[in-house]
């Protein structure tokens, strides 16, 4: 058994131990309080950061929508511009056709005037007839226009021989026509003369008051009538549409843009390639970064111009249901004829 002194010492030891435990407990309480304060501060800071991130996310989505609207408006403007260019080309084509018809009408009128002018000669085997021819040829090289025509051959056949120096213009014209005809008749001419007045009458036009159609008998090469010329022009005009070029092909590079960065680009490409049209062939493709994690699809296609309209393909196939589930807009990057 312990005596009183030992008991007293044991009590003092226990009291000292309790004091130490109280200090330890206070220390732990202080540490737990600090940890609790730190946790509360971290949660508040985290919530603040999260709120800021959500705000930035909403701003980013608003910018995406604005960007998409601007791209869509730009695509619409480009489509309207292409339609205007097509209409302008159609108007230019109509103007060219009208100018061609006008030119043909002017040429037909000019040819008629020339024929009428050439048909006014008569009695070219006489001095009076040669005098009228000489006066007509003053300042001219040919009867009609600036080159040899059937009018020259017709009048040449009516003149029996080269006019004398008294008719310098007619003599010069006679030499020019003879030089043109010489290569066509390489043989040596012995010369032919007509006796009396009946022969010249057969070779020359009738009298000035005779119908102009009688001059056709003087054309050694078979002159055309006005009806023949008109029929020939109609045949030529009928042949021209047949010469229309075959339908060409074009190579087109398209930009296909998604709605946002969450769009499945693989599905988007499959949707694009699922469109099948006569004269349409899809080619190589690649994904091109745009920004904010968004990528666009660039894809090549080959089209037959008369079978496929790029505008119609974009407006009626690519940007409508079901394709518009993935596709926000389409733009033409390059358009080249093959």
Can you put this structure into words, describing what you see?
The protein is α+β, with helices and mostly antiparallel strands and 338 residues long. Among the domains are: 119-182 and 199-233, no CATH class; 247-337, 2-Layer Sandwich (Alpha-Beta Plaits), CATH 3.30.70. Helices cover 55% and strands 13% of the residues. The chain is built from eight helices and four strands. The protein has a four-stranded antiparallel beta sheet with strand order 2-3-1-4. α2 (127-136) crosses α4 (168-181). The longest helix is centred in the first third of the chain and has 115 residues, at 4-118. The radius of gyration is 51 Å and the shape is rod-shaped. Mean pLDDT is 77; it is low at 115-119 and 196-221.
Topology:
Elements: H1 4-118, H2 127-136, H3 150-158, H4 168-181, H5 198-203, H6 226-239, E1 249-258, H7 265-273, E2 280-291, E3 294-304, H8 310-318, E4 327-337
Antiparallel strand pairs: 1-3, 1-4, 2-3
Helix pairs in contact: 2-4
